[in-house]
Amino acid sequence: MRNSLVVIWVILFVTNIKAQTLFPITDPTNKWVIEERNMLGTLHSYWYWESYDTVININKYKILKTSNYSTKYFIRTDSLTKKTMLWNGSFEFVLYDFNLQDGEDIILYIDYLKHDDYFTVVKKDTIYTKTGIPQRRLLLREVMASGPMIPKYEIEWIEGVGSSTHVAYSYINNYPKKTSDNTIYKLSCFKNNCTVPDTLFDNSCFDTIAIERSHDTLFTKTKVNWYDDTTLIKSNSNFLLLPNEGNYTAKVIDSFGCIYNSLAYKNTGLNDALTNNHLIEIYPNPTNDVLYIKSQEKIKYIMLFNSLGEQVEYITSCNPNILNIYNLSYLSEGIYFIQVVGESWNSSKKIVKY
Description:
Layout: H1 2-19, E1 30-38, E2 41-56, E3 59-66, E4 72-77, E5 84-87, E6 92-96, E7 105-110, E8 115-128, E9 134-142, E10 154-158, E11 162-163, E12 184-192, E13 212-214, E14 217-228, E15 231-241, E16 246-253, E17 259-261, E18 265-267, H2 273-276, E19 280-283, E20 290-295, E21 299-306, E22 311-315, E23 323-327, E24 334-342, E25 346-353
Antiparallel strand pairs: 1-2, 1-12, 2-3, 3-4, 4-5, 5-6, 7-8, 8-9, 9-10, 10-11, 13-14, 14-15, 14-16, 16-17, 16-18, 19-20, 20-23, 21-22, 21-24, 24-25
């Protein structure tokens, strides 16, 4: 009986250790894109770890920096408590603690507000990456509001990623004045080892390139470099007019230096039957203001490119099976290429704007 209890205890202990495995924010391959919005406009800052560490008061810190500013943050994961700590130049404070449980309180130093605040974990759950790896997610709420008519602040943490608004600070989700210049922050993209592991960021950053064909033109949703086998034939463009038969690939290097390649597209010189057999009307052409697009089948999205291959429109609010009307009066005179994409078909056409 005692041996059975010992075996059960060991299994529970090992299972608990496995369940408490933490994914460190300080993984050197982690990278973030932060959207910053204020009255001057929108800016995207790119955050990553320096290749070297630094020692402050016997503690070893990783250095978080951004390509936009000279700002640096010194962050470490405590080997005993597994808490993520930040050194602000004067003292160290807890940035993240994913071992907190539902209903547990924590004192957080809100650096940009320059004071401590009490928070309670009001929700703790698990989200799963595209590879099936579980990550803790915590929602913390301020214990007492800062004043009358002011809502209690809330903070969302995602294990291995950081805050849903910023990695270096737990910026408050529903606090309207985030900083002294009213800048509002949002985490728009997170990558680990140049992949997007979390489905939360599928719509804001990419790690794959899809090529679509319409007649004699190949299209991608982002600007790429086009290759015929290993030979570069066109740079920084959303489309490629197929010159002849061959194996074509698209490659792009993002702001972090991550390289992405598409699957090879083999051009045999044969037309795409799905494209040629699909009936779509685009008129008038040439046009000076309104363009009409009519399809017999559902339209997923429409892309419009200028003669340099730059995408000038990406439209997803399309009416299925009926007439779509678009105002192009704001465009400069010239030649444009329009691509209409359906569920299993796509069609492209040259448009003249006068």
